[in-house]
Structures are given as structure tokens and as C-alpha cells.
Amino acid sequence: MVEKDAKKARESNIELLRILAIMGVIVLHYNNAETGGGGFKYVTENSINEWVLRFLESTFICAVNLFVMITGYFMCITNHRGIKKPLQLIIQVIIFSVARYLFSVLSGNKPISVKGLMGAMVPANYFVFLYVTLYFVSPYVNNVLKNLDDKGRKMFVCTIVVLFSVWPFLVDIFEALSNRDWRGLSTVGAWGNQWGYTIVNYVMMYIIGAHFRYRDIGKAENPLLKPGYLILCLFALAMIATGLSKANENIAWEYCSPIVVAEVVAVFALFSRIRMKEKKIVNRMARAAFSVYLLHVSFVRRIGTEKFVTENVLVMLSHLALSTIAIYCICWGVSEIYDKLIGIVYRKLSKIDELSWDVFM
């Protein structure tokens, strides 16, 4: 299962899923009342628009987990790791953060200061640092999976899902029903599961993705994996999460929730069964996903969400769809420019490539 170059395993159907997943992240921040467009803040309570936004939130809440699962699907076939990739990610976070800060200064939204500039240079991004941590830990996870037979891998996956998804979910429900914070009951940490923003959740999704690779889920003969069943399953899960969100958003939309994990599995299984020839445009657009992730919030805050979420539901959906596509395309363009400019620098720093290794057991 170990190959020297994981890039050979790239599949356009999964790359298309990567594009749709980052579009899903844009939708999530369109709704976000604190750090995004504020859809939930401005929409009329109990209106059709609110329920539509809740359904979309429930559908796309699996987007971040999908990225990690895709990582497991591709990276389980190689134990080769290097310092270059993590370093590039962290450098990109810094460059984009500084660029956003300078743009805010030039546009008159922020005063320039040494403290502000220094703050912009700190690469504080939970996703990036958890991803980098997973990147370095994953070869050892790969070796564990490689030394298990098919039955052992199934048991391993079931065990971690029960321990790190189902049980924390039940603890959250118990806390909600008892109206009390029961510290010490969670299997993730003393302060609970932290809504799935943990390396525990990332490792779990990585292992599930790797298991799908071993099982070759795209070719598995199982009537439950037919596209119709998977779409129906995804719709049912999104409806359950939508209804639950009205009572408790945290429980409904936690990344480690078994509902969200099941959505990830259904979506990934669906796209893994799509037969696509290699599409260079799809693969190229998918390369911009990380840049879109870093940049999209700056645009989402400026698209006038508050004006459209109270309009007719079709107007709202049109605004959401067009905004999502436009933001992705703009960020893709920025990504292309960035890759060309920064590529010149990285080629001159070729010694970074030497700082790599293979993990064997």
C-alpha cells in the first residue's frame, strides 16, 4: 500500500469533492453570525429563510471533516513526510494574514501599528496547526492500519467512532437534558469534546478515510452504497440535524457528532463511486482550496448578506449561490498568482526538499 508519490493517486472525482467542500465552508461562513456574513444574525426567526439556512448549515457542516477524510484517503498510501509542505502552509497563512492587515490599513479600516503588524504575522490558525500535527503523526497511524487485517481495521474504526463520536455525543445530550456541565465524562478531554475542534477528531476522520482506501469503497459491491441510497441518507441526516439545531446548535453541528460523521461517510462514498476521467481543470481548481479557505471570510463579510436573507427565499438562495461561486473564482485567481510568485522563492530554497524522511516500523 505504500507508494513513493501519493500525488499519483489523485482522482478528479475526489478533487471535485474538495472543491464542493470548500464551497460548503463558504456557505457556513455566510451563515456565521460572529466571524462571517451573519446570515443567522439577520434572518427573520422561524421564517422559511431561517429553516433553509439551517438545512444548508446541516448539509455543509461536514465540509471540514471531508478535507481531513480526503487527506486520510490519499496519505495512507505513503509514509514519506517532509518539512516543506507544513512550512509552505504556515508561510501562506502569514503572508495572507499580513496582506489582509495591510489592505485594511490602506482602506482606512484599521490604523497601522507595530502591534497590529506583529499580530498579523502570528500564524494562529487552528485548522493549519491541527493539520500539520496530523501530517507528522499520520505515518504511525498508517503503520498501525497496515498491520491490521480487514476485520481488525473494521473493529479499530468502530472503536474510535464509539469512543470519540458516539460517547461524547451522548454526554452532550445528557448535559443538555440535565442542564449541567458534567466535566470528566468525555473521552476526548476534561472540558468535553470542544465541538470537534481537536486532533482527536482529525485522527478519527483520517482513519476513516484510510479505511475507505483499504476497502476500495468506490468499487465495493454493496446495495447500500448505491447513489440513490446515499443521497437519501444524506438528506435524512441533514433533516435530523436541522430539527435538532433548533433545540441545541452545538449538539447538532459539532464536528465530532455521529450525525456529522455519518454525513461525511455518505458524501465521500457517493463521490468515490463517481466515474470521472482525469479533469485537469478540476484538479487545478482543487489546488486553490487552501487559499480559498484562508481568504473567503474577507469577502463573505462584504457581500451584503443582511440585505438578502430577509428577501424572498429564491432571491436569498441566488445570492448565496452566486456569492459562493464568485468568491471561489476570485480566490482561485489570487491562488494562481500566489503560486507563481511564491514558486520562484521555493525553487531557490531547494534544500528544503532534503528535509524529508520515511517512517517505517
Which tags fit this structure?
disordered N terminus, mainly alpha, 2 strands, 361 residues, single chain, two-stranded antiparallel sheet
Give a structural overview:
- By secondary structure, the protein is an all-alpha fold.
- The protein contains 16 helices and two strands.
- The protein has helices at 12-31, 39-42, 48-60, 63-75, 84-106, 114-120, 126-146, 150-178, 199-215, 227-247, 249-253, 258-272, 280-286, 289-300, 305-308, 313-348; strands at 80-82, 356-358.
- Helix 1 runs parallel beside helix 14, helix 1 packs across helix 16 and helix 3 (48-60) crosses helix 10 (227-247).
- The longest helix has 36 residues, at 313-348.
- The protein is globular and about 60 Å long.
- Residues 1-7 have low confidence and may be disordered.
Category by helix and strand content: mainly alpha
User: What do the pLDDT scores average to?
Assistant: 91
Any idea what the radius of gyration is?
21 Å
| End-to-end CA span | 14 Å
Order of helices and strands: HHHHEHHHHHHHHHHHHE
Q: In DSSP terms, counting alpha (H) and pi (I) runs of 4 or more, how many helices?
A: 16
Overall form: globular
The amount of beta strand, in percent, is under 5%
How many strands appear in the DSSP assignment?
2
Helix residue percentage: 55-70%
Query: What does the largest sheet look like?
Result: 2 strands, antiparallel
Unreliable sequence segments: 1-7
What strand line-up does the widest sheet have? 1-2
